[in-house]
Amino acid sequence: MADFGHQLPPLTPEPLGAVDDAVLGEAIGRHGRRGRATGWAPVSAPLAVYRMTSEQVGGVWPLIAGDGLPPGGALLGLDHLSGGAFSADPIGWTLNNTAGVTNPNMIFFGAPGRGKSGTVKMFALRQMAYGYRTLVLGDVKDEYDPLCRALQVQPHAVGHGLPARINPLDFGPVGNDWSRLSRSEAQRRAAMVFSRWLLLLRGLVGSQHVPFGPTAETAVGRVLRDLTGYTDGADRMREITIPQLWEALRAPGEELVDACRYADRQQFLDDTRPVRDALGALVTGHLAGLFDAPTTVSVDWRAPIQSLSLSRLDPLGDEAVGVALTCLNSWGRAMTQLAEPGDLRIVIRDECWKQMRLGTDAVKSLDADLRLSRKDGCVQVVIAHKPSDMLTVGDSGSQAVAIAKDLLHLCATKVLLGQDDQIGDELSGLLGLSAMAEHIVTDWAAADRGRALWLVGNHVAKVQTVRTSLDVALTETNDAITAPPPPADGVGEPGLAPPGGW
């Protein structure tokens, strides 16, 4: 009060009277001593009551932290909602049903330059300490090349004129020791192989806008069994390629015609011509020199990471890259179908929208992998820029769009990096984000790289990814922009790009 010019009179306390020792020694009941102002109140003081929504609690008591996720798995950064460190462990979350997580799949959404690729590479790099091995099925921008080389792994490059070949009809580990298998086990593995091949061929033929109905499936399935020797009961399955399948359909034998219930050979040729033409266009076009011969790439599952680069196909257009991703998708499933117990793997699928735009069957192929992730023990990581990437795979209301929407629900962990306001509205419509969650994505996460809203089951985390200087050197993806140009005389080596960091 003195600061405002008011002088209050001093308050002199009354002197304490003498205390009778007899009073101190007497028993005092729960209501105190009898007399005026000598006891306790019979009722307690009323409590102040506040009514508010859960969204307003943070403003009334801003220093109260919520519960975070269990500290297991890869340490990625800080959770600004719980105030503690944030660790990602999709397999552990699934096994323990943490926050209602039912599968280990992850999907990342983020505008270019928001740190999406850096966050994914950080996740894969940190999980290597826990025994995880990473398979990059189609690095379309060579973003994982520095990380592979730092770990002393040579990435495989697929492109015209390069020695690497991928046979999408490869048996993979399923074909090992076929002659030693029991009859029931051989039949089970054969069913797995033929089912995967038919799903692949349905997607490839559909990419040429040719329907693949039951009649075509019967003919193609019969040819596959004949070429591999399964029809004759051979104890060793022969490896085949797509050009061999195409040639067998072009020159059918009488047994094939009879098995497919055609009146004569000409009727078979007339009825299967659209499928043959579609396969022929692929064999002489997008598959030529890339996916038309036995596999020359050996996947070393003892290495911490394996990557297949598709950057050389980028000048050919999105359709060529999409066909290549479809072939790699089938080949990668063959490589991971018979994983040993405890063999933890991360499968990264970048730019998957290029594959999904090939048609409904291509979307079904990706859908099948996500559904089998819990059984196979793989963490499937799907990367996209925005929700419309998933919704432009077909006409509105089509089966392809419906399956693409379901893919969001097949990924229990959703990582939303910075987006524009319009994209934030799309995310809210698809994922049911609250106004506060949408604001985090379009405002806080968009303000700096590496910031993201993590939706782990029914748990929400506001995470800032933290990278060390070594992490920046291994996961930075802006070298093509920030690196200085080489010397004009061509002598010497260009300088290193500034590490930056976020």
Short account of what is shown:
The chain is α/β, with parallel strands linked by helices and 502 residues long. α6 packs antiparallel against α14, α7 crosses α8 and α18 packs antiparallel against α19.
What would you say this structure looks like, in words?
Helices cover 39% and strands 12% of the residues. The protein is α/β, with parallel strands linked by helices. It folds into 2 domains: 82-161 and 296-479, P-loop containing nucleotide triphosphate hydrolases (Rossmann fold, 3-Layer(aba) Sandwich); 174-275, no CATH class. Strand 1 (74-79) and strand 2 (85-88) form a beta hairpin. The longest helix is centred in the middle third of the chain and has 25 residues, at 183-207. The protein is elongated. The two termini are 49 Å apart. Residues 483-502 have low confidence and may be disordered.
* Uncertain parts: 483-502
Number of strands: 11
Coarse shape: elongated
| Mean of all residue-level pLDDT scores | 81
CATH topology of the largest domain: Rossmann fold
List keywords for this structure.
disordered C terminus, alpha/beta, 11 strands, 502 residues, 2 domains, 21 helices, 11-stranded mixed β-sheet
Give the arrangement of secondary structure elements.
Blueprint: H1 21-25, H2 54-60, E1 74-79, E2 85-88, H3 90-96, E3 106-109, H4 116-127, E4 133-139, H5 145-150, E5 156-157, H6 183-207, H7 214-228, H8 242-250, H9 254-259, H10 265-271, H11 273-283, E6 305-309, H12 318-336, E7 345-349, H13 353-356, H14 360-371, H15 373-376, E8 378-384, H16 388-391, H17 399-409, E9 413-417, H18 421-431, H19 435-444, E10 451-456, E11 459-465, H20 469-475, H21 479-482
Parallel strand pairs: 3-8, 3-9, 4-6, 4-7, 5-6, 7-8
Antiparallel strand pairs: 1-2, 1-11, 9-10, 10-11
